Amino acid sequence: MSYVSTLTVPQARRFQRAALTATGIDSLGTGSYVSAAVVLFTQHLSVNPAAVGFGLTLSAISGMLASLPISALADRWGNLRVFTCSYILRALGTLVWVFISGDAQYLAYSLLFGVIDRSAASLTRSLMVAPLSKEDSIRLIGLTALPANIGYGLGAGLSALVLFLNLPIIVILGLNSATFIFVIILYRLTLRDLDLSKADVSPSVITSWTRIKSSLDSSHRRRIVFDNFLFSFHRTFLNVYFPLAVVVYAPNYVWVVPVLFVVNAVVVALTQAAVNAWADQRNRHQKLWGISGLLLGISMFPVPLFAAVGEDVAGKLLIGLLIVQIAAEIAQSAALTVYMVRMSREENLATDLSAINLGGQFQNITGPAIFSSLVVPERWPLAILAGAVIGARGVLVLRRPSNPSL
Description:
Distance between the termini: 6 Å
Number of strands: 0
Structural class: mainly alpha
Shape: globular
């Protein structure tokens, strides 16, 4: 199903510019907060380092559990309205961190803050998708990679400056909070004179529970959720396993880690929109979906070799695997965007988008523990098993008949 945007061409362009600007500003605040979070928790909130990871896991779990109910509320009460409430709570909730102290308070507040903070992505995505045609939405989501990466980098740089100058940590928290308010204002001003028929659905007699249940009723959608769980492990391969493996097996190559992270960000930012548009034609998204899983699965098989080869060989092999993961990331992201936009119903937009992303959220919870353990040489059977399962799933997707309705 494909609906046509009710916006005029100038309105659509204005909305897309606003969405890209909002993405950059939002990422600026997120980058400043995330890059300084460990310092904030351990040095300013007196949190035991061992508790930091557990708190982040609690936050991810509560966010995943809350994402569907909050998205269902957005479909009933209006995406823009619930989005505004969510971002106001994020802005206020960020400032509350200055009053938190000790492990117990940190863990409790991480659980609470995750409900609002981690469930915001689906609301933002539904707000970008609703006023536009599905073709334009898919391209727009790809275009957001550039401002997102720029904003994230600038935010991290600002946090580094604040920490270097030993300024109060409230500067970083205040910046993050202010970006949320700016994003609210920008979206509300941009959407004020536009047709919000898709972005603000009137309350319905359908209950939120029915919406949630219907979002997972489709066997095709459930398959995508499961595939997304497996295929999005490229994130933890890139962000967790690769740095750890370099430190353990190729310490003379540690300089490569930040360089390749920059390369990853640049390549994704410059290519994602074009790949998204290409994937939206002739069911190419399904091929990219399967290829992303196949690439990730194949990348797992060399893991047992790192302990047996020399440092130089290990370093070069890791660089090669990282390049493969960048390709897998671009393919997976493009295919997932097409699935999310094309398989989400207009009347259930936010809930369907959130449901399809459940696999990725669950990967965020389980991935770090799994991939950090793969650095231990004795865990090589786990790498082979994971590679076989993910690779086989990728092959199955490539052999699966395409869905002409998308």
